[in-house]
From TrEMBL:
<dbReference type="InterPro" id="IPR026015">
    <property type="entry name" value="ATP_synth_OSCP/delta_N_sf"/>
</dbReference>
<comment type="function">
    <text>This protein is part of the stalk that links CF(0) to CF(1). It either transmits conformational changes from CF(0) to CF(1) or is implicated in proton conduction.</text>
</comment>
<keyword id="KW-0066">ATP synthesis</keyword>
<comment type="similarity">
    <text>Belongs to the ATPase delta chain family.</text>
</comment>
<dbReference type="Pfam" id="PF00213">
    <property type="entry name" value="OSCP"/>
</dbReference>
<keyword id="KW-0139">CF(1)</keyword>
<dbReference type="InterPro" id="IPR000711">
    <property type="entry name" value="ATPase_OSCP/dsu"/>
</dbReference>
<keyword id="KW-0472">Membrane</keyword>
<dbReference type="InterPro" id="IPR020781">
    <property type="entry name" value="ATPase_OSCP/d_CS"/>
</dbReference>
<dbReference type="GO" id="GO:0045259">
    <property type="term" value="C:proton-transporting ATP synthase complex"/>
</dbReference>
<keyword id="KW-1003">Cell membrane</keyword>
<keyword id="KW-0375">Hydrogen ion transport</keyword>
<dbReference type="GO" id="GO:0046933">
    <property type="term" value="F:proton-transporting ATP synthase activity, rotational mechanism"/>
</dbReference>
<dbReference type="GO" id="GO:0005886">
    <property type="term" value="C:plasma membrane"/>
</dbReference>
<protein>
    <recommendedName>
        <fullName>ATP synthase subunit delta</fullName>
    </recommendedName>
</protein>
<comment type="function">
    <text>F(1)F(0) ATP synthase produces ATP from ADP in the presence of a proton or sodium gradient. F-type ATPases consist of two structural domains, F(1) containing the extramembraneous catalytic core and F(0) containing the membrane proton channel, linked together by a central stalk and a peripheral stalk. During catalysis, ATP synthesis in the catalytic domain of F(1) is coupled via a rotary mechanism of the central stalk subunits to proton translocation.</text>
</comment>
<keyword id="KW-0813">Transport</keyword>
Amino acid sequence: MAELSTLARPYAKAAFAYAQQASDLSGWSAALATAAAVSQSEKVSELLENPQLTSEERADKFLSICSDDLSESGKNFIRLLAENHRLPLLPEISALFEELKAKAESTIDVEVVSARALSDAQAAELTKSLGKKFGREVHLHSSVDESLLGGAIVRAGDTVIDGTVRGRLAKLAEAMNS
């Protein structure tokens, strides 16, 4: 995984810099998401790994599938990736682009998994608190996992806050054993 990020990062940064300069972050975000989804299709994956095709043929076949969703600069980006044998990195490039976009827009996506569904008031309070903690606008996505005894797990990027009963008991046991 780290290797994929290392290979994809320069492309994501270049796409982000271009999109930012062109004031088209949302357009590039959508285009990269579409291209990433197309590249993960089983048939397209086989096409991308076909050693009998040249880089240009791979790019042309890939663009024949999703060219309607790409601008001319997006098509050129796909051709560049094909030329450098990096089309399989599109999902990672798209994810890194989204991270750069969120940072530039001062937003963060937060996933909350709780034992019970959050009320609107709880969601609003959690959004407000997390916004203060991270210094960004929070986009909250919540889900329910009834296997949790109580509490919630909050994931925001690399940060994980385990506020579940099971997590608290594990911390207590660790503290007592040390």
